[in-house]
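Entry 14. Structure prediction run on the chain below.
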Amino acid sequence: MDSSKGSTNSVVGRRNWIGIDGTCDMAGMINTRAGPRHSLSIAQIVPNRPLQASQLATKCANLSLLSAQLCKTRSVVVEAMEVSKEAPSAGFANRQPSKGVLETWRNAHAVCFDVDSTVCLDEGIDELADFCGAGKAVAEWTAKAMTGTVPFEEALAARLSLIKPSLSQVEDCLVKRPPRISPGIADLIKKLKANNTDVFLVSGGFRQMIKPVASELGIPPENIIANQLLFGTSGEYAGFDPTEPTSRSGGKALAVQQIRQNHGYKTLVMIGDGATDLEARQPGGADLFICYAGVQMREAVAMKADWVVIDFQELIAELP
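Output returned:
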C-alpha cells in the first residue's frame, strides 16, 4: 500500500507536466517517474548523433505516443484521487454534526471503540486467515458480517471453521504481522483520557489479538470486550467462547448496555464502522453512534449514523 501511494505521489507531484497549451513537459515527466537512480533525459532517449530523417521521424512519433500515454495516465490518477477524496462525504448530511451531537460528544463519560477497521487499519480475523492460508474465503464472510447481510454468529463460526488457527499460529501472526494502529487514534484516546473519559474496546475480534493493541494505547485489559479463542492442551484450535456477547448479532449493544450499567455512565458514545457497531445505538446502550469511515466506507451504516468522520482529528478538534 505504501509503495503504491508513493507511486501515485510521483505521478501527480509535478505541476509543470502539462502546459497551458495542453502539451506535456516530457523531460519532467520522465525524470520524475523514473526516479533519481534511473532518470532519463530527452538526450538519452534521442542520442546526440546524426539521424536519418526517417529515423528522427520515427523517434518523434514514439515520443509523442509516450507523451500522450503519460498524460492520459496522469489524468486517470488525478481523477481517481479526486473521487477518493470526495466519496466518503458524498450524500451524507451527517458529515456535519448537529449541536446536540457535539454536546453529547463533548460530555461523554465513556467512549467505546470498535477495533477492526477503526482503531486498527486491518480486519484482524482477515489478517489471521490470510496468515493461515484461508484469506479470500474468510474475507468474503467478513464483508457479509460487516454489512449485516448475515447474522454475525453465523459469519464468525464459518470463518473460524475455515481458519482453525492454532495457538502458535495466532502468536506467530502477531509477531510477523503486528496490528497497524490507525492514524490519530492514539492522540484521540490520550485526549479523552485527559478529559477523564473512560475508553473501552468492544470488538467481534479476538481478545488474544486485541490485548497488544490495548496495551499500546494505554487501555487496561479489563476494558476489552471481545471474543475468546479456545485451544486444546496441545495448542490446537478448539472453538470460541459462545457466551461472549460480541460473538453474536446484537452483541455489541448488549456489551455496551452492560458497560453502562456496571459503571453508571450517564453518557456513552460508540465509534465504529460496521453494522454491529450501529446496533449499539439504542435505549440503554450508546447515546451516540459515530461512524468512522477512514478505513472502510459502509454506506448502509454511515447513512444511519449520528455523525460520519473520516479522520480522528475531526473528533479531537471538537473536544474541550
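The chain has two domains: 2-88, 96-317.
Filed with the rest of this week's runs.
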